[in-house]
Amino acid sequence: MPLAHGVGGSADLPLPLDLVLQAGAATVVLSFLIAAAVWTRPRLAGHPQRPVRTAGKLPGLRMLVLVASLYLVADALAGPRSAANPAAHALFVWLWVGLVPLSALCGPVWRAVNPLRTVFRLLRLPRAGLRPGPGAGVWPGVLWLLAFVWFELVAPHRTDPVVVGCALLGYAAAQLAMAVLRGEEWFARGDCFEVYSELAGRLSPLRRRTPLSGLAAPFPAAYRGAAGPAAFVAVWWGSTVFDSASGSPAWAGFVQRTGHPALSATVALTLVCAGVFLAVRKAARGLDVTASLIPVAAGYTLAHYLSLLVVEGPRGLLLVIQQWGLAPGAAWAVVPLPPVIAGAQVTLILLGHVLGVIVAHDAALAAGARVTAGAPGPAARPMLATLADELPLVLFMIGCTWTGLLLLFVR
Amino acid sequence: MRVLTGLVLLVSSAAFTVPALLGMTTLLSAPSLLSAPALFAAFVLVVSSASIAVFAQLAMLALTRRRPVRPDPPAPAGAPLAGHSEPLPPGPAALQRRTLRTVPFLMAALALLPGCASAPAAQAASPAACGPAARDQVRADAALREGRAQPAPRRVSVPLGSQVRLGISADTAADIHVHGYDLRYPVQPGQPACVVFVASRPGLFDVEAHPDILLLQLEVK
């Protein structure tokens, strides 16, 4: 039996048109209301950040995750080479998709439980590294993320458990080698899942007293500049956009006409990510869009993968249990109701959009306040100047939201 | 930078033609103009065409306005909205710019015109593989020719609970897989395969020739 579709694709109906139109109108109205009327002074910046705990009360959890990872990798390599193997579920659903809601809720969880860090500590490798240095900041993480999304969306035989297992082993070996070279803090900028979790974790309402203040916090110094995180978010969002678009019949027809599916998909994926990166960097002069794109990307990712998470996440767990001979007849055959899924998708996209606009607006206000900090009097820059400054940014975000909605409509 | 902003604005305004056109078609096909969908479509049409106009105008401003010669105020001038803060130079240039401002509105009107005269797309001729469909059946045919679907992959709308009569012909031996319903069956060259099943699950399901040549998508709702 051919082994394709180890993870069933989502079978969501495209968003209904009326919902898309309503949501599109709502984005425009909400953006301008928030930007102009409701939010008139900066409120987010300057709140203290709690550092992430990497030790402390977590060793049990770390060990648990390490054992689970080792078991899943071993199972991928030695277990049944069929759709009954949970390897693809573990990598593509639990880790890749599940990390977003978990981080958005609890903060950068992967940093706390990263099994590679645990291995690094258990092996007593040199914590400071053999040749410590800042290196290229977060750019290695960006490239690893690009490699991962290529593996997830384009690579042939990507759901074959042996391929998944080998890819994971290779990733772990490369990461550990780099960590030996650069020290343990390599993981914070070189392990794409940790960066992913860190960026999505900025949304977490549990970690900070002021909601959203995490998004206004500066990026870690190890990232070295704003271009790296921007590229990371661009790859994150761009890959999800590509995944949506490549599910359409039009894309399938194009690929069949050109005849090189892997090549065209690779080129398209790279182009989409590069395009998003350019837009992120150039859309707003001076203003940093990255932080405000994080909620947009998280909302879109959740909207796009919602049914996959609901349907295939528990199914993977069931596969693990059934491998042990338990619950042989059980099946997870939940079919989400299309209207509920559509409503949730639109809600998530709109929520991401609103949060993004708030963060962007707040950043613009704070920048304006900084510019006039030396000037006497309480009056900061005129509101209109700030609005004019952030207009390209807000338009860019409206464009992102429209893109997301339309993609879920044509999908 | 200014050019890029202008281009982004232009693209945004172009993107707004989609809801405008959709609103227009909805409006045109509505049975009564006083029903809720028609009123909503009208609202969408108005909002999106206004947005087209505003965005395109801002784009024009961003693309045509020159940087002031003496940038003495340190405040960040040059945002596309700030056209009122600096007096336009008098003379023919100002006149030209003023006429330029009407261009976006004309463009928006032009963009809306095709919506009035949109004809239904021509139906692609589908290869007969499956015989005539019964009354309540939805018929979907596709052919696999030289590794590609013929006609090009498309979406077939199927009412929930109706019977689907799916006919596939191929020029090589292939495995056909209907996702979601998990139907798998082989097709031989010269022997079209025909499957009839009840579309009992809502969703969007691929019909593929394995490994991954998409033939068509069934949209069951």
How many individual β-strands of chain A?
A: 0
Judging by the overall fold, what is the CATH architecture of the domain at 137-220 in chain B?
Answer: Sandwich
Helix content of chain A: 55-70%
Tell the overall outline of chain A.
globular
- SSE string of chain B, helices as H and strands as E: HHHHEEEEEEEEE
The biggest beta sheet of chain A reads: none
- The overall average pLDDT of chain B, rounded, is 71
Return Rg of chain A in Å: 22 Å
Nearest-integer average pLDDT of chain A: 84
Relative strand content of chain A: under 5%
If helices are DSSP runs of H or I spanning 4 or more residues, what is the number of helices of chain A?
17
Order of helices and strands of chain A: HHHHHHHHHHHHHHHHH
Structural class of chain B: alpha+beta
Number of domains of chain A: 1
Keywords (chain A): Membrane, Transmembrane, Transmembrane helix
Transmembrane segments (chain A): 20-39, 60-79, 91-113, 134-155, 161-181, 212-238, 258-280, 292-311, 317-335, 347-371, 391-410
Transmembrane segments (chain B): 39-63
Keywords (chain B): Membrane, Transmembrane, Transmembrane helix
Explain this structure to me?
The complex is a heterodimer of chains A (411) and B (221). Chain A has 411 residues and is mostly helical. Chain A has one domain. In chain A, helix 2 crosses helix 6. The longest helix of chain A has 34 residues. In chain A, 47% of the residues are buried. The N terminus of chain A is likely disordered. Chain B is built from 4 helices and 9 strands. About 19% of the residues of chain B have low confidence. Chain B has a domain of 84 residues: Sandwich (Immunoglobulin-like), CATH 2.60.40.420. The two termini of chain B are 46 Å apart. With 221 residues, chain B is α+β, with helices and mostly antiparallel strands. At the A-B interface, helix 1, helix 13, helix 14 and helix 17 of A face helix 1, helix 2, helix 3, strand 8 and strand 9 of B.
